[in-house]
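quick q for whoever's on today - can somebody do inverse folding on this one?? i tried earlier but teh output was garbage lol. tokens:
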């Protein structure tokens, strides 16, 4: 089985669907206003990210230059598009459409991996197919049973490597780091896009410009948090490129990073409309909790590869949660400004610590 060193244009094209997936999940959280909506978003992201990341493992192992593989990957891309379309109403009748598209995604992934890379994927593929079948059953039944079954699927899928093992799977450090870095860029880009969506129809005065730039600044600083040591991550991973490290670092911790971006994006989308008014509690929690989760997940990601300088980031994550009263008592613009300032202060402190 070959190791891919560069991300192909087909993979980038494939990842464009992920922008739409994240946008749809952000919309569910934006309109939900409660913990139940957060739970639904978390469950859907868990199963979506499992298979979406599975395609990153797949394209790490096969050549995307072969026409047959390209056609099948485009088929998977189409199925992911249907999943994204079904996300907003997955709780109201589109759960079956979501699950059937997910089954197609899983069948294509298993077939491509089994036929084009390694047959060692079979044990995990069986878990994937069983999970997809349970999703279909849940989607067909609907209601609370649907979400109970989907939660079971989420737990089983992410636990399956502990049962099956990851022997026979090969990972290329350069490809993995680049591909997942691009996913984070796409996610942060979606968080910027929702600022424009939230500002649609509003008068472009100084207050709105300032609020929009503060939202961009927060996203830019989250970008810095992740990419400030990209080369060190790649070097550390290349020194020990085991599937277990790939699963923990690029699977589990990246789930936290993506959920964090969705939470921040939902907060920015709602907050931009009235940036200087007091926020609803759930919006302020989304902004603070999303920022804290992103930084904390990045700390876990770095520790997976033995990178130091995590103390400052841990402090930033805790302090981010303390900004919730600023949102509920003052406004989104002030809360976002303080969150950005905290992340910036952490970045500067890290630079001084590294130079010492």
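ok took a stab at it. sequence:
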């Amino acid at each position: 089985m070959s190791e891919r060193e560069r991300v192909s244009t087909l993979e980038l094209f494939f990842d464009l669907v992920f922008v739409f997936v994240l946008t749809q999940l952000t919309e569910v959280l934006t309109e939900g206003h409660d913990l139940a909506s957060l739970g639904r978003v978390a469950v859907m992201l868990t199963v979506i990210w499992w298979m979406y990341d599975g395609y990153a493992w797949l394209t790490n192992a096969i050549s995307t230059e072969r026409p047959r593989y390209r056609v099948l990957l485009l088929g998977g891309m189409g199925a992911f598009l249907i999943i994204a379309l079904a996300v907003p109403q997955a709780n109201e009748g589109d759960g079956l459409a979501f699950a059937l598209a997910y089954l197609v995604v899983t069948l294509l992934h298993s077939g491509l991996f089994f036929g084009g890379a390694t047959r060692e994927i079979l044990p995990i593929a069986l878990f994937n197919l069983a999970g997809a079948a349970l999703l279909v059953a849940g989607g067909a039944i609907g209601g609370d049973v649907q979400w109970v079954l989907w939660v079971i699927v989420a737990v089983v899928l992410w636990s399956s490597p502990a049962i099956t093992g990851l022997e026979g799977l090969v990972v290329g450090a350069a490809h993995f780091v680049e591909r997942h870095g691009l996913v984070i860029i796409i996610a942060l880009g979606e968080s910027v896009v929702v600022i424009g969506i939230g500002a649609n129809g509003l008068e472009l005065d100084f207050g709105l410009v300032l609020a929009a730039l503060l939202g961009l600044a927060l996203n830019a600083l989250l970008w810095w948090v992740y990419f400030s040591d990209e080369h060190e991550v790649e070097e550390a991973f290349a020194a020990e490129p085991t599937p277990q490290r790939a699963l923990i670092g690029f699977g589990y911790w990246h789930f936290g990073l993506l959920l964090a971006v969705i939470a921040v994006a939902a907060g920015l989308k709602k907050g931009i409309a009235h940036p200087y008014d007091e926020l609803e509690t759930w919006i302020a929690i989304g902004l603070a909790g999303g920022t804290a989760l992103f930084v904390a997940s990045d700390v876990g990601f770095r520790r997976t590869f033995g990178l130091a300088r995590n103390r400052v980031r841990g402090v930033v994550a805790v302090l981010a949660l303390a900004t919730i009263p600023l949102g509920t008592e003052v406004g989104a613009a002030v809360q976002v400004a303080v969150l950005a300032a905290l992340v910036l202060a952490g970045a500067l402190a890290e630079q001084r610590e590294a130079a010492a």
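fwiw The chain has two domains: 9-164, 176-355. also The chain has a mean pLDDT of 90. so keep that in mind when u check it
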